[in-house]
User: What shape does this take?
Amino acid sequence: MPSLFSLAGKTALITGSTRGLGFAYARGLAQAGAAVIINGTQAEHMQSALAALETQGASARGFLFNVADEAAVEAVFKQLDEENVHVDIVINNAGIQFRKPMLELALSDWQRVLDVNLTSAFLIARTAARRMVARQRGGKIINIGSLTSEAARATVAPYTAAKGGIKLLTKSMAAEWAQYNIQSNAIGPGYILTDMNQALVDNREFDQWVRNSNPSGRWGKPEELIGTAIYLASEASNYVNGQIIYVDGGWLATL
Assistant: This one.
């Protein structure tokens, strides 16, 4: 049974992974045996993340690049090709949030959120999948959705549109790439205690709403997403394709 979930001998690229949920995914996959490649845009956070991974004995390296920049994405994969490093697992976690009513929303802000949260997932997955197909060894694509892949909330329209798009993009990937033994699935985290959500946690009214509206009565923890990520990255999910698994404490079940 342990071998079914082992990631030994695999290399995983996790975007937006120098802290928060992305770092939790990277740490978890490393613990399952994968060599991990983390991504971010700030050198300080990258150094801290790599140091933390090294203390647990993980095989880890990092790349600073903008995941929504096609040329930057291609450059990173070209470098990996030159080093004969093959990415077997991708977790498209990079994301940003921007809260503003739609009537006040600038097109530039709308586009920025969609580029980072949705377009980057397409760019990274497409670039990795081309190599997976050429190698004929299959692979795993894991996109990160959200509760807003299913339900909208006021003031976060760009994020909601992007995460709704992640759900259908994942299904499109499965429809096209399953024939190459590539499994494309998504994780939909619920309300999780992360840096991105800190302002909501600190808002007493919103914090109470999260606790009252969730059957579990609490926020989730980043480490509670690791098991789902390992499952979708491992052989245990070889016939699971085009799905989104919500890790939300039961929140969606009560809508």
The mean pLDDT is 97. The helical segments are 20-31, 43-55, 70-82, 107-135, 157-177, 198-202, 204-213, 226-233.
